[in-house]
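tool_log.txt
---
The assistant was asked to compare two proteins side by side. It first ran the structure predictor on the initial sequence, then on the second. Raw inputs and outputs are pasted verbatim so the downstream comparison step can read them without reformatting.
(1)
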Amino acid sequence: MAKLARTKESGTDRIRNGVLDLIQDLQFGDKLPTEEKLTALLNVSRPALREGLKQLEQEGVIDVVHGKGRFVAAGSALSIARPITKFESVTEMVATRGYETTTEVLGFGVVPANATDAADLGLAKGTPLLRIERLRRGNDAPLIYSVDLIPRHLLASTEPLSQDWTGSLVDLLDSQDLRPVASTAKISAVELPHGAVELYGLHDFGPALKIREICFTERGQRVVLAEVYHSGKAFAFSFVRR
């Protein structure tokens, strides 16, 4: 079997996805290949492999029997490819669903943090924030409306007006050693803000799943406050209840 090429995707994610692909050809109770075979197949180190397998064990996808190996668990039938708990940029998320999209920057500027946003970002009220308002379309249909707030001082060495804000904010922050890797989020079913609907002609957007999240770096620094509205016509998120 051919090795998988290395990509920017983390070793843990590639292991999880790779093992899930492997399990498609196995049955409940079947034994997984040895660590030696899996490291060769997935092209990862043994420590990284064990981290990925540990994640799958915690998800109930595999069982570990000490002295015998790892086996396909009953929970494998409940596994989902893109769990709602997985942290990923909007750019990544849209790409994995097969959409060919265009991104339009609807608005950009510097605004003072209100009390709620300041508290979420751990800042003083009035702290300058970069505000990026964007719309992503797929096949000319609106898919995602989003507003991102980034503390201005985090990008003090860059000229905001010269940036290409149509790309991934995660990648932009990564270039400043501020890559977000996790978030805390609140999810609600809503309509788009009335002002956005009227101003940008989004009357056909329909009901939306709104995710308001605070994004953190691996050092625990808060770098983005995002409100992302996913069109209910285009997206459905799944999760497993145990």
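(2)
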Amino acid sequence: MNIIKFLDDISNKELLETKGSRRDSFSQMKKAGKNMALASIPFALAATSKKTAAATMAMSSAEDQASPIEVLQFALKLEYLERRFYAEGLDSGVIPAEDRDVFGLIYDHERAHVNFLYNFLDSKGEAFIEPEFDFTGAPGGLSLDPFNKTGIGKEIAYAQFLILAQGFEDTGVRAYKGQAGALIDDNVLLEYALQIHSIEARHASQIRRMRGQKGWITGEGEGSPSVLDLVYAGEGNVVQGGLDLAVVLSQYSVASLTEAFDEPLEMTEVNAIANIFVAP
């Protein structure tokens, strides 16, 4: 499998352009505009060259990566978080009837991801049970109520639920991208990880549109609340493979250049986000 081609395809080939109905938007794909011609610029360089100061968000070199088992344990923690979040959301009654099918499907996907990762790790004697999560964000100093447990009202609670859902899914996309290099020598695990990665990206795009946003990220999460700042840190990068795209492709806006590339997150960065919601 050509990881560069795969990541390039899922990042640029099927971007949504118009907001469809909530039930139909999974299947309503249109080709992006002229700025998506950036698919032809040397993305491969960003994944194969050594990390440099100029390309601060380039994929880590192999020697900096965790072991495959550590990566899958890391992924399982994230999938546990997402599965529990959607399970509680569906049980809470805050999700409107017209949106329940969407989140029911996303929950099924996350459950399948957990089952796959847990069973594989269990076969190696490396699985672990689900941690306890606190989706108020209290462990990280937040005070949210996405499930209306304090009676703030379903409308406000659902707005918070959507914000967190967007943050979790966009984090998942960047997390899998950031650790793909650690699986480069295991074609089977790499393929499974990238299959999960692409589904997380579809979830993220769907939820972003349900919030009235573009299906892709602009800059450092333009239009997103400050609670998601950690999720989008570094997404404003325009240096790819040592090339400053704002210079070599100056005919395009900086915003469109940031939209054309998703940036990876390091494991420590993702854990900092996830731990906001892990009960002590």
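---
observation on (2): The CA atoms of residues 118 and 127 lie 6 Å apart. The longest strand covers residues 239-240.
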